[in-house]
Structure formats: C-alpha cells, structure tokens
Amino acid sequence: MESPLGSPTGARKTSVFSTPVGNTKSSPFRFINGRRFHSDEACVYILPCDIPELTRQGLKHHLFKEVFGGYHMADFSDPRKIPSRVLDIGCGTGIWIASMHDEFAARGRADVKFVGMDVVPVYAPMTDVDFTFVRHNCLHIPFPFQDGEFDYIFVRDVSSAIPSTSAQSDMLAECLRVLGEGGTIEVQCTDLTIRSISQTKAPRTPCSAYTITTSTQFESQPQNHHVQFYNNRVSKILAKRALSPIPCSTVGMLFSMEDCLVNNHSARYALPLDEIWWESGSGKDSSPTSDGSELKRKNSVSAKNELDQSSPLSENDLALRYQARLQVKQFMDSLEPYWNETRDLPGEDFNKPYREMTASFFQEDGLRNGECLEFGAWWGTKKSC
C-alpha cells in the first residue's frame, strides 16, 4: 500500500483525509444534547469532541506527564535513538506531539516528522512542527501507511474507541506492521473506574503516586457509596458498547502475546484522588466512614485543618491529586448524554446522586479511603519477524 504521506523526504502536508470513514456527511461532527461528537457511524468512540472535553484531555496530558515523569517512558536518552518519524494514534488536539517536538528540538532534533491519526480533526495549529494529520478510524485495518514507515508509535487513551480485546490485538498487530524493525511502540492508558489502594508502607513516587507491583493490594470495592455509584454508571455505559472500564489490565497481556516485540517494559501507578487517611502520619484513626461524608473521629472541617498542619504531602502533591479528582468529574460530565441509559428505574433522577457525588468528592473529604486512578505504560521494540 502506498502511503498518503508520500516519500519520507517529500514535502510536508498539513492534512490528509484517508478512507474509509463510516459516514459520508460533509461535516465530521454531530451534536447530542448540546455536546459535539464525531459523526463516524463506524467508530464507537463515545466521548465528545468539543472544547470542554478537549480541555479535559489537555489536563490529563499533564497528569500523565507528572505521573510518568515525562511525556514518554521509552528511552531516548541517547540522541542517536531519537526517532525520525513518529505516529501518534488518537492524537486529539496534538498536545502530545507539540510537547515531544519541543523536547526533541531542545536536543537538536527539530527535524522529527510527526503524523497524528484520529477520527476527526481537532488539532491546534503548531508553529514550526513538521506535522501531518491523517483522518482515519483506528478500527479500519489496514492503516494508510507503508510497512515499516515509522520509528516510534505512540498510543494513549484509545480504550474508549476499541470495543474488544480482539480488536485491540488486531490494532497492535497493525501498529507493528507500520513500525520499522528496531522501532519502539508505547501504549499509555488509565482505567476509567476508581479503585481503592489498601494501606501500605511502600514509598510514594515523586508525584505522590504509588508504584503498582504484584504485592500491591486493593480493596474489593471502594467504601464510599458515591464512588460505587460512579463506577456502576461508567461501567454500564461502557459495557453497552463492549468497552472495558479497566484497560490497564489487558495491555500487558497483549504485549506479551506479540512475537515481534522484544525488550518489553511496563510501569503502573496508583494516583490517589486525595490525601489518604493513613498518609497523615499522625497515628490517629481518622478513617472516613463508608459514605465518605464525614470522619469517624472528627468532622471534615477540623480534619482538613489538622491535615493542613501535619500532612507529609506537599502543596504540589495535593494540587496534583485535586487535578486527578477534577479529571474524574469532567469524565462523568462528558458522559452526560448517556446518563439515561444507566437508570435502574424509569424516571429515575440522575441529577440528585450526581450532585451528592460531586459534594462528596470536593467538599466532604469523601475520597480519603485510598480511592485512586491507575496509570499504566507499556513499551517495547520491534524485532525482525
């Protein structure tokens, strides 16, 4: 297959629209309940493509950077290993591409060519970046690229667009087809539901997360019933579309099944959504009650004042966890057009439990039982196969 990008040394194109797309309408967008979505009927991606959602994705980009300590986990410390042609699948606004260009340019490689692939064009203008956009549904195989066309392929948070493990496996195989021998593929994602990490003496990472290992323990389910409500609603919406709420549990298995991948690495972290009661270091029992609305020993206001004085977490740590907490709320907001699908009873009011959930998360110290988001990264090198 001839690549629409032409020769690697050819002139740069600003936009390429590939086929097939599932909808032939002139506009790539449609509106549902006032939110802008893609109009590709063959794409199961469920999130909006409007400013609030793109803003959420920008915030999450920075969360990934803080958790992983950089914009990528693959090792490019040797300048000779900096890739020349990079493919970002599910590029969105292009914020990762812009960040990587700045990093590579600061190291003397402003010539790196970037290709972003997504189902709709929502990328922002990027000054001085050698960037080409390709409109293509990642479920449509083959991709419109030649064998071995790229040195580095980056895939982040596409779990909301890939409906099954088999589809994920097919997409990974196609990524390896267009990745050159010796090239690197990296997949990053977060789980879409909330887990609760059990009390641990393990040290925190510099960003106040906990490294997930085989010995890391989680509660069977979160104690806060508002978190249970969130997990239940999100899982129902995703299940209707055969989407997984816990993609971090499958990526490693997919990597291990690929014979063409060697030097596989992974990193998984649990980022708490607030200061956990056992992190205060006071030795006192200040565990929240099961509804998360108040503390066993004291009310939420006095607890917060004490934590402000004795917390081992820095202001930056607490701010990062607040951003993660905000990320959860914004994700729920982006799913608003689907809320009615999750009603247990006809006419059930969704707004009341949503308001109570928000109050629990932001006003009542309701996320101090270890509730966290899992971040994962997997990367490996393609061998001759």
Would you give an account of this structure?
By secondary structure, this protein is α/β, with parallel strands linked by helices. It has 8 helices and 12 strands. It has helices at residues 51-68, 95-106, 165-178, 225-239, 251-257, 300-310, 315-334, 351-362; strands at residues 15-17, 29-32, 35-38, 85-89, 113-118, 130-135, 150-156, 179-190, 195-196, 210-211, 261-272, 371-382. The strands form 2 sheets. Strands 1, 4, 5, 6, 7, 8, 9, 10, 11 and 12 form a 10-stranded mixed sheet that branches. The two termini are 19 Å apart. Residues 6-13 and 293-310 have low confidence and may be disordered.
Taken in chain order, the helices and strands follow as: EEEHEHEEEHEEEHHEHHHE
Total of helices = 8
> Tell me about the biggest sheet?
10 strands, mixed
Q: Using only CA atoms, what is the Rg?
A: 22 Å
Strand content: 15-25%
List how many beta strands DSSP finds.
12
Structural class: alpha/beta
Shape summary: globular
Helix content: 25-40%
Average of the residue pLDDT scores: 87
How far from one another are the termini? 19 Å
Low-confidence stretches: 6-13, 293-310
